[in-house]
Amino acid sequence: MAADVRVDSGEYAAERRIAEELRRRGVEVEVAPLPVGDYYFPDSEDEPGVIVERKTTLDLVHSIEKGRLMTQLARLKESGRRIVLLLEGSFREVEKLTNFPLRSLTAALRSIAVNWGVPVVGPLRRSMVVDFLENLAKSLRNRKKREFALRPSPPREWSLERKALYVIEGFPGIGPAKAREVLRRFGSIKHFVNASLPDLLKIRGLGEKVAREIHELVNTNFRRSGRIV
């Protein structure tokens, strides 16, 4: 049986108690190097899973101070999977152990959630971190059994532009920022999916590998290829 969660080997070495507690609670855990994030929850062969980046509140402050946070978020979003930033600890620790202004931390959390579109959970104490990871693993396990769609339909009250961005964000390697770049460049979903490979390569920051993947995805005739099950 496939694991419910893959734990990055570096995260396991640093905080193995989390993985061992998940195992004790009946969660199937696999330890392996992950390209990004600390925990990966696969959903199904057809849908991307969920990546959880766990940080203590002090880790978050250090990432902001060292200028690493934006780079980390960019790499996480490039994965094309759903991302959750899971905070462990408390803001009291930040006040007590650092000189970092809480107003600046609030602004950073706003940017993560609103500008980057990454949900922030916490800060939680350690036992609740394990509770959250267990709940996520088991909810996705049950979702697989029921064959529910992973990506819900956008709310009806959204504007056409927001719905278009939502659709574009569903393509590999396209996050919120790139979706806006795509819509600005091509003007519509139709023009985007009909774009040639050279036109896709002009999208700032997309990269040749992702551009080719999108072009192949849009232009493959699955009925002829026999890939539809």
Overall structural domain count: 2
What's the CATH topology name of the largest domain?
Answer: Rossmann fold
Task: Name the helicity range.
Answer: 40-55%
Please tell me the CATH architecture of the largest domain by its name: 3-Layer(aba) Sandwich
Q: In order across it, which strands form the biggest sheet?
A: 2-1-3-4-5-6
SSE run: EHHEEEHHEHHEHHHHHHH
The general outline is: globular
Catalogue the unreliable spans: none
C-alpha Rg (nearest Å): 19 Å
What is the CATH domain class of the largest domain? Answer: Alpha Beta
Please give the alpha-carbon distance between the first and last residues.
21 Å
> For the report, how would you describe the main beta sheet?
6 strands, mixed
Total number of helices = 13
Amount of beta strand: 5-15%
Jot down its keywords:
alpha/beta; 13 helices; globular; 6-stranded mixed β-sheet; single chain; 229 residues; Rossmann fold; 2 domains; DNA polymerase, domain 1
